[in-house]
Specification:
heterotrimer; A mainly alpha (323); B alpha/beta (408); C mainly alpha (288); A: 323 residues; mainly alpha; C: 288 residues; ABC transporter involved in vitamin B12 uptake, BtuC; two-stranded antiparallel ribbon; 11 helices; transport (chain C); BCAA_transport_permease (chain C); amino-acid transport (chain C); Amino acid/amide ABC transporter membrane protein 1 (HAAT family) (chain C); ABC_transp_permease (chain C)
């Protein structure tokens, strides 16, 4: 088993190196594609803390993603805030919003939880749409400057390659933190709750409070992703808060495999690349996306990455037995 | 589909040029146009109409020898009515497809997101539908042009029509987003200038975009009994509104009704003979209006191909392609900066008439058409009679009033 | 006074229409335990069927009223057999994703078959025009909507309480294993339930066709509205769908008329309040 872990680590390290130097070897447009994959991957991974690890399907996480986007966009527009402090504000702001929404939502479970997150998410959407004096209504926040990072590094974030490498750094750091959380005793409790909340409750752990912690943490990571997304697309608009935006991380997590840590990132890559390629050769992209989705759900029960991991592990186990 | 379409288009072009003995050679590298429109969801019809108009222009131009001896090739992307998607589409068109010029944009919200970053991709962009004043106003930039009628021009026409009625008290029903709100603001401003006695309701109706049931809003207007109602709903919302309003006797009431986009062909053809008569309706181009050979040829070719009269969105996209042709020929090259500069102040012939891109804000000086609906047994859609074509000069605000400062 | 009467009547009409659209979603959830994201798309198919049968083929509206839902029900039965049939033992998220894929496929297919244009369906002569009600003018068609709602609601109630097929469905909903043991062909029941739910959604589409613009994507608004209806009334509860629809109809009817600025957010506030105070919905969860 250990040799497998070593190998996986080496592959991951090689992948990260290749990703870091992506601007020097890939076609120019793929810098944008890779940036989008990373950001949406972080969104999906953050969402998956609640979904895959804690077993609660939220259809309102666009609220935190979009909120992060609005925070960064508005700070840039009104205060010309550098990116890093703006991202910090997005994380804290989204965390607070998740605390308020989560306070109500974690009281419910199963499909009722899902529906309540949908309702709260759409309330946030409605506020962004209607509170025109602050949010600029349906037009959203546009035309804000994207200039400084905030560490005195003098990076021009307007350069897509630079922005990509900043995004890669932030996402890898955030993913590392998220990974540590999932491995911590806290993360193990979440997993146990997903499998059997009653048994966890018997051990004296306050299940509802742990759900809330998970929800808030998840909201913070999604807010960070949204905070990166606004300077990437140069816009923060109400669509980023809409429930259809909440559906994206669900798709990504399931496509990649919600039971694995890297699954949501893989799912994000599948989703973004599919959309990029399919829209290039057909305008019937929804049809193809629908068919691919359906086939994956029917035949890859644990998502693409999850199924691949299962396959590798099964082989490893066989080999261990043989040895 | 795009690729297939363009291939198909080039095939037709080649065949046509062989037949005509003209000079588009297949080996000449094509000049690439990237177009971003709505191709999915409730408003997908706008993308399809634009595609029809642009394809027609591309095929005509290729059949007659292309531009500078090179054929045109057009690639479409779906904006999905989302700014973030449209911006990624623009990057893809510029960096991946390596297009020479860009055109499109239906939704104002999408346009306000896209326009500020057009200078980043360093590619001339002609907007053909989105009507928000900002993209040739406070958000204007040297790379961005608009060939189509904007909200100011559209609503100035409505105010002109309103000023000629006896109505003094006005209210509105408009979609609850920037477009509906801005339309009402401009209506009050322009009508107030033309008729200082006009009064405006302080409780206008703004149903959400995509509202299914307009009954409460219709009842609110009927209860208020104003002298006139200004309606800025469009597309499927307007179709819904008109049908439900007819059911509730809205059009038999004693007030004037002016619809700023009621004469759009997608609305008239959806409604057929259910379109009430005697309503003042506007559109950003009326196929039977402009009296010039370009328009005659365009309407004829479009009808032959699709069996319906062209919509304003088809005309706008068609005009944008010809604007590029003209700019490339003026510049004598396809270089992006050269085309950008050639477009500024350029005048060219479009179906809607002679169109000039103002140097000050890059807005085309064009005007809307307004008329009163009349059922015509010979036509598949209601006709406008009498018809008024408003001159671009009369409805376009001065550059100083747009908030655009291109000199910087 | 008149404006209250008008708002009341409007709420009732809208509520009944929402009931027709959403009740199928609730029946499918109640028995199959799946949230059908494609429900709005099935409603859209009903509207397009009405447009094709009356507008393109020139058949009377009354034929569309019967044939439209039947066609969609048959299509739904095929879809259920091909796509949904083998994954009922999976987590609810898998079915959610699969019906989402179905939604994408139907949306695109509709654009392919019918194009992107906006269409209308003309109501039959007898249902055109208005009548006066306590000083207000109301459309005759709204009476028809109410009548259909009563017939469908009553019919479903009789079906589930009085007929063998209805009782079998309720049995399969409350205990799949036990139903199997007593010899009920559960897979067949599931196919029938999905077809029934889809057929009613399509009926909603046919009824809505003469008062709604028909265009691609018209189902996407309706799906969230339907969620609100079934949540307020009670997930899986058939009478709940009726109550939820009337409540949402009133939120729209009165909210749009008297609180237009809050119009967009009110339904979601209503949904959240019900979920927090009475998660099982106003009628509580019961097997259909």
């Amino acid at each position: 088993m250990n040799s497998w872990k070593l190998l996986a680590g080496a592959v991951l390290a090689a992948l990260l190196v290749a990703l870091w130097f992506l601007p020097s070897w890939s076609p120019y447009f793929y810098i944008f594609v890779a940036t989008e994959i990373l950001i949406l991957g972080l969104f999906a991974a953050g969402f998956n803390l609640v979904f895959g690890y804690t077993g609660m399907l939220s259809l309102g996480h666009a609220a935190f993603f979009g909120f992060g986007a609005y925070v960064v966009a508005m700070l840039a527009l009104h205060l010309e805030a550098p990116l890093l402090p703006a991202l910090a504000a997005a994380v804290i702001g989204s965390g607070l919003l998740a605390l308020v929404i989560g306070f109500f939502c974690v009281r419910l479970t199963e499909v009722y939880f899902t529906m309540l997150t949908l309702a709260f998410g759409m309330m946030v959407f409605s506020i962004a749409q209607q509170w025109r004096s602050v949010t600029n209504g349906s037009d959203g926040i546009t035309g804000f400057p994207v200039s400084e990072l905030g560490l005195g590094l003098g990076l021009t974030l307007g350069n897509p390659a630079v922005f990509y490498q900043v995004t890669l750094s932030v996402v890898v750091l955030a993913a590392a933190v998220l990974y540590i959380i999932t491995l911590s005793p806290f993360g193990l409790v979440l997993k146990a709750m997903a499998e059997n909340p009653e048994r966890v409750a018997f051990t004296g752990i306050p299940v509802r409070r742990y759900r809330l912690y998970s929800f808030v943490l998840s909201g913070m990571f999604c807010g960070l992703a949204g905070g990166l997304f606004a300077p990437f697309t140069r816009v923060a608009s109400p669509e980023m808060l809409h429930w259809s935006q909440s559906a994206e991380p669900v798709l990504m997590a399931i496509l990649g495999g919600s039971a694995t840590f890297l699954g949501p990132f893989i799912g994000s890559a599948i989703f973004v690349l599919l959309e990029t390629w399919i829209t290039s050769f057909t305008e019937r992209w929804m049809l193809f996306l629908g068919i691919v989705l359906a086939l994956m759900v029917i035949f890859l029960r644990r998502g693409l990455f999850g199924t691949a991991v299962d396959f590798v592990l099964a082989r490893a186990r066989r080999r261990d037995h043989a040895a | 589909m795009h690729k297939h379409l363009t291939k198909f288009a080039s095939a037709i072009a080649v065949a046509a040029s062989l037949a005509a003995g003209s000079s588009v050679h297949a080996q000449e590298e094509p000049i690439k146009i990237g177009a971003i429109y709505i191709f999915s969801g409730v408003a997908a019809t706008y993308g399809e109409f634009a595609q029809r108009g642009a394809d027609l222009a591309v095929e005509e131009i290729n059949a007659s020898g292309g531009v500078l001896g090179r054929p045109l090739e057009i690639t479409y992307e779906d904006s999905q009515i989302k700014a973030q998607t449209a911006i990624q589409a623009m990057r893809k068109l510029v960096y991946q497809e390596e297009v020479d010029v860009l055109m499109g944009l239906d939704s104002s919200g999408v346009a306000t997101g896209v326009v500020p970053i057009v200078p980043e991709v360093q590619t001339p962009f002609i907007i053909t539908h989105a009507a928000t004043p900002d993209v040739t106003g406070k958000l204007c930039n040297e790379w961005t042009y608009r060939v189509s009628v904007n909200i100011n021009q559209n609503v100035k026409g409505a105010a002109t029509m309103a000023a000629e009625t006896d109505a003094q008290t006005w209210t509105t029903v408009g979609p609850d987003y920037a477009f509906g709100r801005q339309s009402w603001d401009f209506f009050q401003q322009y009508l107030g200038e033309l008729n200082p006695d006009a009064e405006f309701s302080d409780s206008p109706s703004f149903p959400a975009f995509g509202t299914e049931d307009f009954t409460p809003f219709i009842n609110a207007v009927i209860d208020a009994q104003p002298d006139g109602v200004f309606v800025s709903l469009w597309g499927g919302d307007l179709v819904n509104f008109i049908r439900q309003a007819s059911d509730l006797g809205f059009f038999e009431q004693d007030f004037e009704v002016i619809m700023s986009l009621g004469a759009a062909t997608e609305v008239l053809s959806a409604l057929g003979d259910q379109m009430p008569e005697g309503v003042t309706v506007g559109t950003r181009y009326w196929y039977a209006g402009p009296d010039n050979p370009t328009n005659d040829a365009f309407v004829k070719a479009y009808r032959e191909r699709h069996g319906t009269p062209p919509s304003y969105n088809a005309q706008n996209a068609y005009a944008a392609v010809y604007a590029y042709k003209n700019a490339i020929e003026t510049a004598g090259e396809v270089d992006k900066a050269a085309i950008r500069d050639a477009l500024s102040g350029m005048t060219f012939q479009a179906p809607i008439g002679e169109v000039t891109f103002r140097e000050g804000d890059h807005q085309a000086v064009v005007g809307p058409a307004y008329g009163v609906t009349r059922d015509d047994p010979d036509s598949e859609i209601a006709m406008l009679e009498p018809l008024r074509l408003l001159a671009g000069e009369d409805v376009t605000p001065a550059v100083e009033d747009t908030g655009c400062n291109l000199a910087q | 006074m008149e404006s209250v009467v008008a708002a009341l009547w409007n709420s009732l009409e809208l509520g009944v229409l929402l009931f027709l659209i959403a009740v199928g979603l609730n029946i499918i959830f109640g028995v199959l335990n799946i949230i059908n994201f494609a429900h709005g798309a099935l409603y859209m198919l009903g509207a397009y069927a009405a447009f094709t049968l009356t507008g393109l083929l020139g058949l009377p509206f009354w034929i569309a009223l019967i044939a439209g839902p039947l066609l969609v029900a048959v299509l739904a039965a095929v879809v259920e057999r091909v796509m949904l049939h083998n994954i009922y033992d999976r987590p609810i998220t898998d079915t959610l994703l699969l019906t989402f894929a179905l939604l994408l496929i139907i949306d695109e297919a509709v654009k392919w078959v019918w194009g992107t244009g906006i269409h209308i369906v003309e109501p039959p002569e007898i249902l055109a025009g208005t009548f006066s009600l306590l000083g207000t003018q109301q459309s005759v068609y709204s009476l028809f909507v109410l009548a259909v709602g009563i017939v469908v609601g009553g019919g479903l109630w009789l079906f589930f309480t009085r007929t063998l097929a209805g009782k079998v469905m309720r049995a399969a909903a409350s205990d799949r294993k036990m139903s199997r043991l007593v010899g009920i062909n559960v897979p067949l029941v599931f196919t029938a339930v999905f077809a029934l739910g889809a057929g009613i959604a399509a009926l909603g589409g046919v009824i809505a066709a003469p008062i709604r613009a028909i265009s691609p994507g018209m189902g996407s608004n309706i799906i969230v509205e339907s969620f609100i209806v079934v949540v307020i009334g009670g997930l899986g509860s058939f009478p709940g769908a009726f109550l939820g629809a009337i409540v949402l109809g009133a939120i729209h009817g009165f909210g749009s008329r008297f609180l237009p600025e809050l119009n967009i957010v009110l339904p979601f506030i209503g949904m959240a309040v019900v979920l927090l105070l009475k998660p099982q919905g106003l009628m509580g969860r019961s097997a259909i």
